[in-house]
Amino acid sequence: MARRNAKKILVILSEYGYWGEELIGPLHHFDQRGYDVEFATPTGKRAHALPPSMDPSYVDPPLGRSVTSEEVAKLTRRVEESDRLDDPIDISRWLPERPYTSDDDYLRRLEAYHRAVDTVAAELEEYDALLIVGGSGPIVDLANNERVHEIILAFLRADKPIAGECYGVAPLAFARDWEDRASIIRGKRVTGHCKEYDYKDGTGFLGTDFVMGPPPYPLEYILRDATGPDGAYIGNFGKETSVIVDYPFITGRSTPDSYLTGEKIVEVLENGLRRFGW
């Protein structure tokens, strides 16, 4: 139960599968402090954990070992079997879709769009931080989701913490103001799923029979380009954990970084942490 005057966190989950620990890790720290946590998905469908993330016997191919402990698998199943993720906020109903330039009465539609986005930005003021959970699912419905981008931009303009894990960092690279089209992480230090961790095959998603080989883009390359010459992608390959805080961004490389990501979000909110990991 949330404490009186507790922090409020908005957590965005993919409908095509999130990685269990990447939710469980931050949630552990949020719950420990009595934070109020609300969930949102692209179309309001309930999010589910990817089956391998609940299976301690699953061997992650790039690492050649299991990345899910019995305890984390148990905690993930507990959340899956509860009603906690039921009835998430429907982002498609919450935010409008930007009109096409070919639409009739484009100018009036665009003005209406901006009015609606401003309304949502005002509603987002009740939240203290944003977290985008990783897994393969975000590749499908979060990375290039303009409604998700508008939520990210609203937090950025309000100078509030924005966190992403693994492929949940991708929307941060693609979120950008339409005036200059530069990524919001340009000039920043971030981490995310490094090239060495990419699967060669078997990248799967929930809700579809489609299973692809490697991910459609190497996230590391996207992040290196998006941060530009004055920023940096920091993969820390060969080190057990990689979490980077370059305020307002908190980014976690992959599954083993989930608990540390949650810890750093709390430190940003409660202790004013502005830099970590670089």
Tell me about this structure.
- The chain has 278 residues and is α/β, with parallel strands linked by helices.
- Helix content is 33%, strand content 15%.
- The protein has nine helices and 14 strands.
- Strands 5-2-1-6-7-13-12-14 form an eight-stranded mixed beta sheet.
- Strand 3 and strand 4 form a beta hairpin.
- Helix 1 (20-32) packs across helix 2 (70-81).
- The longest helix has 18 residues, at 106-123.
- The two termini are 35 Å apart.
Quick summary:
This protein has 278 residues and is an alpha/beta fold. It contains nine helices and 14 strands.
Could you give the order of the helices and strands? EHEEEHEHHEHHEHEEEHEEEHE
Total helix count? 9
By oligomeric state, this entry counts as: single chain
**Integer average pLDDT:** 96
Largest sheet, strands/sense/barrel = 8 strands, mixed
Unreliable segments (pLDDT under 50, ≥5 consecutive)? none
Structural class based on helices, strands and sheet pairing: alpha/beta
Distance from first to last alpha carbon: 35 Å
Shape: globular
Spatial order of strands in the largest sheet: 5-2-1-6-7-13-12-14
Q: Strand-residue fraction? A: 15-25%
Radius of gyration: 18 Å
Query: What is the percent of helical residues?
Result: 25-40%
